[in-house]
Fold this protein.
Amino acid sequence: MPAKYWAFFVFLFVVGTILGLVIENANLGAAEQSNLEGLMVWTSTNITGWGTIITNAPTYFVSLFNALFWNFSFLTGGWVYVKWLVWAPLMAMMVWGLIYTFVGRST
């Protein structure tokens, strides 16, 4: 498969993730914390020392996991099936594209 197809699938996955993060942030109430806010915790928090970094690390990694697996709050009910139909092939292509990029082909 040509490299332009790999790049296209990786682009789709990244754009879909960014759109999901932006849409999710718009749909949440003030009491809930979105994945986008969790990923941006390092810029929104006044980091005063190692204690702040250590306490924010779990939030960051949970948000990173949710972003990678498209575990957004607005994808509930019937949208879960659409998520798996779209996300699974894109995630597989992204992982394979990364492997293909770093390992390469031996000819």
Observations:
- Residues 3-103 form one domain.
- The chain is about 75% helix and 0% strand.
- The chain has one domain: 3-103.
- The CA atoms of residues 51 and 57 lie 10 Å apart.
